[in-house]
Amino acid sequence: MRARMGLVGAKIRHEHREITLSDKPAHMLEISPKGTVPILILPNGHIIDESLDIMLWALEQNDQHRWLNGMRIDMFNLIERNDTTFKALLDRYKYPNRYPDEDCTNARDDAVRILFDLDQRIKVNNALSGEKTTIADIAIFPFIRQFAHVDRDWFYAQKLPSLQNWLREHLKSTLFTTIMKKHEIWS
Ligand SMILES: N[C@@H](CCC(=O)N[C@@H](CS)C(=O)NCC(=O)O)C(=O)O
């Protein structure tokens, strides 16, 4: 999702190949044996198979929204915490049966502590890192959406007014609605 937002946000012309994770095309596994999406194949054959790297590549070509303008250390620290600590808690909250040897009962509450920090940042600055949307907002938003959608009623009942509003705004943005358009499975 965030790779697509990076590509569309930077207006990079590209062919979108939708795949089914349970039936990965041989070509996909050939170019990226780790078997995760997204994968970007550049015209010169170079492969980028991490979503954040795809975003960064796209913004290097055309950062028209100035998503890289801001405090780099702050933006990338936020993304790092999201991609490690928050993602681990989200997975344990959303799919506890995948972790039979772990006690996942506190995952949601631990994750919410991070969300309180994000809420406070938005309250003070308007966006996650500073006043304007940056790569931090775009890179983190899909994870907050996923977290919220595990139990929407619970999420929207929490005292996270700025984060809830931020999420609603991103969900109705042209960028998000554009990248959510359905694609045929590629073959
Ligand atoms: N760190 C990777 C993670 C990508 C990832 O885990 N993608 C999931 C789908 S959202 C996937 O491809 N899973 C492989 C599978 O379920 O077989 C990135 O952000 O690019």
Overview of this protein structure:
By secondary structure, the protein is mostly helical. The protein folds into 2 domains: 69 residues, Glutaredoxin; 102 residues, Up-down Bundle (Glutathione S-transferase Yfyf (Class Pi), Chain A, domain 2), CATH 1.20.1050.10. Helices cover 57% and strands 2% of the residues. The protein contains 9 helices and 2 strands, in the order ααββααααααα. A hairpin with a 5-residue loop joins β1 and β2. The two termini are 21 Å apart. The mean pLDDT is 97. Glutathione binds next to loops. The site of glutathione has 7 residues, from loops.
Q: How big is the Rg?
A: 17 Å
Q: Beta-strand level of the residues, as a percent range?
A: under 5%
User: What would you call the shape?
Assistant: globular
| Level-1 CATH class name of the largest domain | Mainly Alpha
In this entry the ligands are:
glutathione
CATH level-3 fold name of the largest domain: Glutathione S-transferase Yfyf (Class Pi), Chain A, domain 2
Residue share in helix: 55-70%
Strand order of the largest sheet: 1-2
Structural class: mainly alpha
Mean pLDDT across every amino acid position: 97
Could you give the count of β-strands?
2
Give the second-level CATH assignment, the architecture of the largest domain. Answer: Up-down Bundle
Instruction: Compute the number of helices.
Output: 9
Number of domains: 2
Order of H and E elements: HHEEHHHHHHH
Can you summarize the main beta sheet?
Answer: 2 strands, antiparallel
Compute the separation of the termini in Å. 21 Å
Regions with little confidence, pLDDT below 50 for 5+ residues: none
